[in-house]
Amino acid sequence: MRLRRVLVVMALLAGACRPAFNAATYPDMNTLSKAAMAQYDAKHYDNAAKAFERLTTELPARDPRMPTALFFLGKSQDKNGDRLLAAKTYSRIYEQFPEDTLADDGLFYSGLAYQSMWRKPVLDAQYGESALTQFQTFLALYPNSPLMPRVGEQMAKLDEWFATKDYETGTHYLKRKAYDSAIIYYKDVIRLHPAAPRTRDAYLRLHEAYLAINYKDDARDLCDAARKVYPSDRDIARQCGPAAAPVASH
What we know:
By secondary structure, the chain is an all-alpha fold. It folds into two domains: about 120 residues, Tetratricopeptide repeat domain (Serine Threonine Protein Phosphatase 5, Tetratricopeptide repeat); about 80 residues, Tetratricopeptide repeat domain (Serine Threonine Protein Phosphatase 5, Tetratricopeptide repeat, Alpha Horseshoe). The protein is about 70% helix and about 0% strand. It has twelve helices and no strands. Helix 2 packs antiparallel against helix 3, helix 5 packs antiparallel against helix 6 and helix 8 runs antiparallel to helix 9. The mean pLDDT is about 90.
């Protein structure tokens, strides 16, 4: 135990004697760039962010090193938990260097950074909207990027969260018997997010809302649509009943 304490004290003293990292002390951009990467690789993300920040402010605007500096500045900010800053930094790559090989990466990671700030579907969806905008821009600008499958996955997750947000709002109104408001939100789920898993539940709850206010024609039409979308779903079949038999022609 005593030896362990001595080793801990020695390690602390060694750390105290090591000079603090100062990005301003590097005389040129090449040495600063190497120091910045060394700090990033060592997981000293605060130091790395300071070094890459200096690079992005002192490199010439069209310097070919700028996209890499911006990318790792965004990564460092992201690792530090500064995700809003990171999202904006990543965006600068495709905005300033749309043809660079890191442009699609920057746009993708910008969307991820925004998406990570939308904590739960029921919360304000501002950052979710920002993420969706970035991913939609990605689809338009970089349709041949190898990141396309990952973008599709994230957009599907966002779609489900948006559907869940509207569904939960509709359910809030349904429980309080504010049926007209509930109907609006459930219809938005079905119209705007047809592929989301939560949409099937929106059909069921919308049917309940229609029946509660005796909208029998709307309930019947909804069931016809639900059977087409979910032909083998037991809950749809149980709630809506069997489809009407076709009228024989003479």
